[in-house]
Amino acid sequence: MGVKIILNKDHLPLGEEGDVREVARGYARNYLFPKKIAFPYNKTFALLFEKRREEIEARKAEKRKDALSIKEKLEGLGLVITMPAGANGKLYGAVTTQTIIDELEKAGFSIERKRIELPGNSFKSVGKYKITVKLYESAAAEMEITVQAQAIKTETKSASPRPTRRRRGNTEPAETPAPVEPATPVKAPVAE
């Protein structure tokens, strides 16, 4: 059996500030209440949030407006991601949501990981893909991502002679260098 709560902050899986939801008792008691994300739904808190209703609605309207401007910017932005790939177009890694978040941060956008939806959870080959970025309420941006192959430098190794090794069972002794005689110190003449 659940308990009714009223959200004090926006909390992505549950809703926005001022929303009334029903959640499991343990979730409310152990997580939402201690972090002040929500309060128990009762007359006191219901009146408190009713007084703040205009303020909450003004913030929601501002978020909707911001989401629409971000949507336009994201849809106009074409991301090009360069990754190492083989000759057949398969990537040596994968383009994941974290890769896309890093590229968006370079472009000046700060978007949470859970707001980005990739078809198939990752891209593993070169090509053009469409992703969805959930912004606010029903506002979502459709972005086009181009994954390109990175040119891989191949080093040509010069043919160096390999050292010869003795094989097992080879009874010939290996050549040993001639012993070096220690040099005798030479005394310089002393002028008197």
Shape: elongated
Query: What does the oligomeric state look like here?
Result: single chain
Give, in order, the helices and strands: EEHEHHEEHEEEE
Binned strand content: 25-35%
Helix content: 25-40%
Q: How would a textbook summarize the main sheet?
A: 4 strands, mixed
Radius of gyration: 34 Å
CATH fold label of the domain at 68-150:
Ribosomal Protein L9, domain 2
* Strands, count: 9
> With helices defined by DSSP (H or I, 4 residues minimum), what is the helix count?
4
Highest CATH level, the class of the domain at 68-150:
Alpha Beta
Structural class by SSE content? alpha+beta
Architecture of the domain at 68-150 in CATH? Roll
Describe this structure in words.
With 192 residues, the chain is of the alpha+beta class. Among the domains are: 2-51, Ribosomal protein L9, N-terminal domain (Ribosomal Protein L9, domain 1), CATH 3.40.5; 68-150, Ribosomal Protein L9, domain 2, CATH 3.10.430. 27% of the residues lie in helices and 28% in strands. It is built from 4 helices and 9 strands; from the N terminus they run E-E-H-E-H-H-E-E-H-E-E-E-E. The strands form 3 sheets. Strands 4-9-8-6 form a 4-stranded mixed sheet. A 3-stranded antiparallel sheet has the order 2-1-3. Strand 8 and strand 9 (139-150) form a beta hairpin. The protein is elongated, with a radius of gyration of 34 Å.
